[in-house]
Protein 1
Amino acid sequence: MGLLEGQRGIVFGIANDRSIACHIANAFAKEGATCAFPHLPGEKSERRVRKALDGAEIVDPFLIPCDVSNDDELDATFVAIREKFDSIDFLVHSVAFADRTYLKPGVFADTPRDVFAQALDISAYSLVSMARRAKEMMPRGGSIMGMTYYGSDKAVPGYNVMGVAKAALEACTRYLALELGEKGIRVNTISAGPIKTLSSMAVGGIDEIFKWVEQKAPLHRNIEGGEVGKTAVYLASDLSSGVTGENIFVDSGYNIVGL
Ligand code: NAP
């Protein structure tokens, strides 16, 4: 029997088969979970997600269009999922966006107000707005998790406004964990090392970061998406029943190195 046998939940953030959310969906399916997959509206987006899930061998996936910066779309998404699943056990937030013009070394001080606000809205506030809706569908408690990166705490050249958004995401996680704990809902983040995806390739200087991790991390290699998937299974399952408000690094140990 799988670790998530009979569990149902929502995985936001599949763009293609490289997406961290797709690795998580794959790992959850192997452990017996059933997921709904909200994606940005549009036929092209739906086709990409369907193709990614074909590779993950998920039969008849439940896809719903949803721009997470739009409250009406979020409402409609959660209503549709409630009709299908009644209740849920987990929610995965694997969504981020910032205008790539401002994701390169040397331009952080130039970040315009609207670019800053949009990055924070899509990449951090959306966790709060999802949790507000998800808690109503978690009568037995549940697990909510977001994806973050080392650039939340350290100034990584080029990560810029996304680092600020990740700091906000991690703080939102702690406040949500504090508030939702009495309902048995746990809220955590996974801090993944760099992985080649559409989002990470938008960060200027990312190839240098991959090389640097290989040289400096204790494991002397970059991580694979499946390793984030396995940690997500741990966080969704009873194995982590006493863990909330935490940030778990899956980064070959890079974050512990001081020199
Ligand atoms: P990805 O495949 O590009 O996934 C990002 C997802 O966010 C895409 O599915 C994208 O949809 C979606 N998205 C953006 N704006 C949205 C909106 N307004 N409404 C709904 N969905 C929206 O990249 P990823 O690397 O897997 O990123 C997943 C998460 O992991 C992000 O939070 C990222 O910051 C985090 N992370 C990534 C790395 C890494 O190195 N890859 C490391 C640490 C943390 P479209 O593609 O359709 O626009």
Protein 2
Amino acid sequence: MKLNHIVEVQQFRKKELLEEVFSLTERMERLDETGDSSLLLSHTPRKKILATLFYEPSTRTRLSFESAMKRLGGEIISTEDAPHFSSMVKGETLEDTIRVVASFSDLIVLRHYEEGSAKRASLVSPVPIINAGDGPGQHPTQALLDLYTIKKELGRINNLKVGLLGDLLYSRTIHSLVWLLANQENIEFYFISPEPLRIPSDITVYLREKDIFFKENCNLYDISSILDVLYVTRLQKERFRNKEAYNAVVGSYVVDKEILLSLKPDTKILHPLPRTSELPSDIDLDPRAVYFKQAENGLYIRMALLKMILE
Ligand code: CP
């Protein structure tokens, strides 16, 4: 199936498309073993160029996209700190920047602090745009790698009880993952967050409309023993309106050893990373903690997406 812009995860509603992405991702994961050169980008008439345009900090998303492009034999150009080192400093609009960068590249991966920015970029760009996070909006490629990780670790993406713990209001990875999971069969959502950081109402309205089970305001200790997946996020400190609002919730949740004792032996703990105090490093060796494997899966998912978009 042909992919062009990736702006929101709802674009992956079609089962066949998701299956195609995951199947290609599995092949990308084994590329070093198989040496299957048909997985690489074809270079006629020249090498393909990926532009990474980041207006917010990133470790995983930018570097995994850049590594993915290089592993496929392509080239990259990059602005990692666009608010300081792009012509935005001189007053250039996002739309103008996109038009110009598009003339230098075959695809643009964009991270921006404003919700809706990827959509705006896609409306003026002659080359595909991939949303690498638009403010508190969405992070669709993260949701794809999250779901791929669940599939690999549990062998299924249906019939799951999923606990989502943390900053559900501002976390774009949570928003995208819930939209994506809501399209799978027999998913139960358990939302666990500090009161001011509850899941946005557009999501709960949708879940109600579709008759999908969810429970808000859960106590982690009450539900931990039934979960198949515990997905944790940090407080999105950069999105809080003021210091007081942040100080009121900081340290209010943590996945500690007591929680680990209450989880099932096969529950998987995911986190998009980076983490802060909510996920102490002393649980990293627990076999249920799969967040570093999850980050690695981002590389393979992004290789598959680049291949599908560019060819
Ligand atoms: N998960 C994620 O988006 O990480 P980065 O902010 O490091 O890209």
Protein 3
Amino acid sequence: MNDIQSHEARYDCWLQHRDTYTGSLPEETLKKIFLMPAEGPLTHAAGELRRGLEKMFGISAKCGAKCGAGGGITLEIGAGGIPPEAFIIRAEDRGVIITGADEAGCLYGVYRFLALLAQGKICRGMEITDAPTTPIRALNHWDNLDGTIERGYAGASLFFKDNRVEYDPVRIQDYARLLASVGINRLSINNVNVRGPAKRLITEEYLPELAKLAAIFRPFGIRLLLSVNFSSPCSLGACASADPLDLAVAEWWKRRADMVYGAIPDLAGFLVKADSEGESGPFQYGRTHADGANMLAEAVAPHNGIVFWRCFVYNSTQDWRDTGVDRARAAYDHFMPLDGAFADNVILQIKHGPFDFQVREPVSPLFGALQKTRHLMELQITQEYTGHQIDLCYLPSMWEWVMNFDTRHGRNTAIKDLLGRSDGPGIGGLAGVGNVGLDRCWTGHPLAQANLYGYGRLAWQPSLSAQAIAEEWSALTFTNAQAAGTVEKLLLDSYRIYEKYTAPFGVCFMVTPGLHYGPDVEGYEFSRWGTYHRADREAIGIDRTETGTGYTGQYPPENAALFSDTSACPENLLLFFHRLRYDFKMRNGRTLLQNIYDTHFEGYDEARKMRDLWLSLEGRVCQTVFEIVKERLERQLENARQWRDVINTSFYRRTGIDDAQGRKIYR
Ligand code: GCV
């Protein structure tokens, strides 16, 4: 059986049309939608249900008030005892009831019902109750006002063009639907590097347009956030400084917040990148990050606003000669001493690892350690270091590993257990850096849609496995069962393969500087970015234990001991934590060098197998999608070849040691 979807249908992502309705509920049940109450808060959810039934299954349903006990689908609000945004779906003999704790809960219930229906998982007698684990499930765009996207690999911005807010309202509504269908409820639309005209987004020049955008997202339960520049009081011409302890500055921000909230009353808040990679911040004035964040927090507090304050603060003008500074330490060193010093409406936003979204990094030691400060975890969905949406790299595999990381700050303190916990070390949510642009399939690589979907599903339920998400997404996206099964396998293999042919064993930053695609072993070695591996003829890596930079000491004793011991440290992080000789014996009995060779030969071979597996789907997926993915897998293979040969040759040249299996290494 052919998958008859056209490429255009990729536009619908996981809300795909299916040719036939094959569910076990009688089609008649799906033709009537009842609302309780009949008017008001549920009309949007009902409209989405009607639209979904029509678009996905070709079923035309009518909405109306309920009379008698007739079948159909009833939408209602207000089951007691379920938390905000939660829902219950019950399929009874007389019909289906979707009960939301509130308006958003009902909407989420509708989307889940449609997804389950599409997977043939709705049957009579079933009852599902579900609630998001975390209250904040944010997506951050890094879109610039000129229409470009920092680290964007899927076309231009959905929101901006030529320094104007410019968008297709239908497309924005479709985007809102996609995001809401996986539970995303906060959205920042402009880059955290707030430069040039973006600084004026918080002025009358742009606010009316932003208010219109906010209105499109609102019915989907999505509240906008704005990235702001810390030095705005100066750059917008009002103050001589941006010193957070200067009363005139604080007053300026209060008035500015009043103006912004006048236009967008439910704005979720401001997102701030300060003292980072050239952005201004409190350090410029000799103040702390608590001083800076709290001053802004006071300005937005009357409007119930939140300040999302990023912890990506490090010295980006480092001297590579100076071995005394370790960038990995930076976030903890800056923010841990401030635990408890932040206002209640400040949420620290912490990248999941101590560096910068590398293919493999340990989880930041701030998680589990912060006890008195609200915080959330930032993940990167856009594939900056993970293949630019050319290479297939299914990120939920990485995130599952992050979610399962045990911080060992007491019992039940794995990241997935901390997410949504409201006491001390609880993590209040996730923020994902988005991977979407104007590309017709949204994500450039059609299979990269799985990363957006997976992010939303994990933000909702952090204990979901990468496998469960891949299965769900593939089944929803590819209606041909064989295609879905093959795609699921491709997804699940892809991160491991990508890791194999790129920087070895957690060493980080062997990428082309600036671009971050393709290998460059020495590219960041003598730079100012604190990104060194210090490989020489005998050894590679940085000692981050107590005998080195002391980074391991930022973890509680059990984890510090685990990471410090080369025989216990997870092997995929060995070169993150240790400086090792090339003849270091790894657990398989082979040397580190031989393992570097092996993983790179294998990575390439496995990338070729992935390409071949995709080729086996010709005729089972629509030809256009087939060709696009094929072309990307070919480019991936070339990238893997380049990585393999550059890495292997570079280590061969350093060591003069041949591959034990005599495979080709270029001299
Ligand atoms: C938005 C990395 C990226 C930058 C990004 C920065 C950040 O350094 O390369 O493009 O800037 O992270 O997260 O602020």
Protein 4
Amino acid sequence: MADTKKLFIKTYGCQMNVYDSERMAEAMGGAGYETTETPEDADMILLNTCHIREKAAEKVYSELGRFKGMKADKPDLKIGVAGCVAQAEGEEIMRRQPLVDLVVGPQAYHRLPEMEEKTRAGEKALDTDFPEEDKFEKLKGRSKAKRAPAAFLTVQEGCDKFCAFCVVPYTRGAEVSRPAERVISEAQDLVERGVREITLLGQNVNAYHGAGLNGSTWSLADLIWKLNEIDGLERIRFTTSHPNDMQDDLIAAHGECAKLMPYLHLPVQSGSDKILKRMNRSHTAESYIRLIERIRAARPDLLLSGDFIVGFPEETEEDFQATLDLIKEVKYGQAYSFKYSTRPGTPAAERPLVDDAEASERLQRLQALLSQQQKELQDAMVGREVSVLFEKEGRFEDQMVGKSDYLHAVHVAGSGAQIGDIRKVKIVESGTNSLKGVAIA
Ligand code: 5AD
Ligand code: SF4
């Protein structure tokens, strides 16, 4: 096609944004755009942004500044900002960076093609509405192109929890669950296109309460059991969850549902009850530890992942020690940790900050402990048999790289496996960030 235009999308932040970027690329495919990996070739550049911490939001403006020269050379180039910074700052983005043509919030992506047309007519386009219609229905992929073997599928968006530090309830809005029927048909479509592992996404995915197939409301466990029936789909994961929504049926599914992988990301944020209360988390350190015990009783080999914030307003050394104690008790195979970052408009934004150097020093100590635990749990995989889904070729000849059931990266040489194959692998070595194994079946 002579007039195919090129779209470059840069994605920041969470997996939900990765999924949204794919959907935006498909929507723009219908408007005559194909994606490119290089911004220099692009007729349109879209930054799909993250607002979760200050640094993430500031990155957007420095990136936009870098496009100035490109726009001077190519006046027809359109520049758009999508995602949570778009939702949170709206028109302010165009005021601060006038080269921006388009600002689109996460709930309005299906309107992108019309917005792009508007920019071609020389106007600016802004849409940060929370419309009633299901954007994913409107964004339905036209393409039947083959997909990589592991895919994301958004089933729930938004959050009603209002943790005192978090912008998500404001940028992504209230909790909304997609009807099960739509999720299932999208999953079937992905499987037909070569997908063997699906990660169900939601800001608070275990609070899923979508319309079921039988007129009742379905829980996340109900949805997982239905997806378990899809032939060709071999692995199911979900992220990210809140401890208070970990219902009995979901815990049981971890023990009973063969395709549900033994990995759970269950953020606790802090181990101090005082801080948890101030964070508005509505659970205690003790209730979290008891919950983990119940989940591990259902699935003893489960690998646990978490999120932690250090230096939350008024966190003392004693509070921080309580977080270290919780980590020592729980033992995490994977973790993400952050220094508290003030987010305008959130309840915690008005509170007195912990000294920055102190917070940085705590983060270092926390990360040292988490790294040590991760390494120990990774090393403990040596000698064990895991299943590996191969996702790409390795750097060496006949070497393939995939993910184990526990989400460890595993390198396997000489297996003859293809991308998309699942093999039994015996782990023989533990490296810095990945395992080495040999195929045994
Ligand atoms: N400061 C630091 N970390 C934050 N997170 C969310 N908001 C903030 C903030 N204001 C972290 C939490 C959450 C993860 C996605 O990001 O740990 O679980
Ligand atoms: Fe943010 Fe997660 Fe808390 Fe919701 S549950 S407010 S997304 S940290």
